[in-house]
């Protein structure tokens, strides 16, 4: 007698088990961070989850997903969180990359330890909820440009401050602080010919309580590597 052989369907690859566990742990860690946050903002949560979904579906490569699909992801998340539609969806058209929120690239930091530095406090002051350089800021940068220019391996660090982010930056002080530092960097590179590889931007993750005017400014530090210090 012929025995009927049961048809077997191939199962999922073995690596999918580890991958699924890893993604679950990442999601759990993200939820834990949100639950421990002092400020519970559903809008920021929807924006963060939307950015995560966009990164996953586009394989972490910017420009792969059409802008219409990206907006639909964010709007779908806002509906899931019972939030109204975004007032200005175009504000997300050119989002700041998460890497721009790092205090400074680790490679640059390690290369400059230990180091000597010259500080230039408040090289530019900004209006509330704005990252646009004022005429006064441009004039002040004109006078400081020659002193701040990095030479012979030096690095110019631009530190943005913000405690006044409003609707333009979705209430995110870190985005506003980064945008202010980038505005100063763009001015120095485009108007004064600074080497873009020698100018770094960073944002303060948390401002010092009690500060007012300083929280709408950009500070600069001209950093000298240790090898140059010894040679001098």
Explain this structure to me?
The protein is of the alpha+beta class and 232 residues long. The chain has two domains: 15-95, no CATH class; 100-231, 2-Layer Sandwich (60s Ribosomal Protein L30, Chain: A), CATH 3.30.1330. The chain is 42% helix and 12% strand. It has seven helices and four strands. Strands 1-4-2-3 form a four-stranded mixed β-sheet. The chain starts with 14 loop residues before the first helix and ends with a helix. 22% of the residues are buried. Mean pLDDT is 75; it is low at 89-107 and 228-232.
Whole-Å distance between the termini?
A: 95 Å
Low-pLDDT runs of 5+ residues are: 89-107, 228-232
Give the helix proportion (percent range): 40-55%
**CATH architecture heading of the largest domain:** 2-Layer Sandwich
Strand portion:
5-15%
Strand order, biggest sheet?
1-4-2-3
């Amino acid at each position: 007698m012929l025995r009927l052989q049961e048809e077997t369907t191939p199962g999922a690859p073995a690596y999918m088990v580890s991958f699924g566990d890893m993604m679950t742990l990442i999601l759990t860690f993200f939820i834990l961070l949100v639950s421990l946050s002092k400020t519970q903002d559903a809008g920021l949560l929807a924006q963060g989850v939307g950015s995560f979904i966009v990164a996953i579906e586009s394989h972490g490569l910017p420009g792969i997903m059409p802008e219409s699909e990206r907006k639909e992801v964010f709007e779908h998340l806002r509906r899931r969180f019972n939030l109204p539609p975004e007032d200005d969806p175009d504000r997300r058209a050119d989002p700041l990359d998460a890497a721009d929120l790092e205090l400074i690239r680790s490679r640059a930091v390690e290369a400059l330890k230990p180091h000597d530095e010259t500080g230039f406090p408040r090289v530019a002051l900004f209006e509330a909820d704005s990252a646009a350089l004022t005429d006064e800021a441009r004039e002040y940068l004109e006078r400081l440009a020659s002193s701040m220019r990095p030479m012979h391996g030096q690095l110019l660090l631009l530190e943005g401050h913000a405690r006044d982010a409003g609707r333009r930056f979705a209430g995110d002080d870190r985005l506003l602080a980064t945008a202010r530092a980038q505005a100063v960097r763009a001015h120095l590179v485009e108007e004064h010919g600074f080497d873009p590889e020698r100018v770094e931007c960073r944002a303060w993750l948390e401002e010092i309580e009690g500060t007012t005017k300083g929280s709408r400014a950009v500070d600069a530090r001209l950093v000298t590597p240790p090898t140059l210090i010894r040679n001098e």
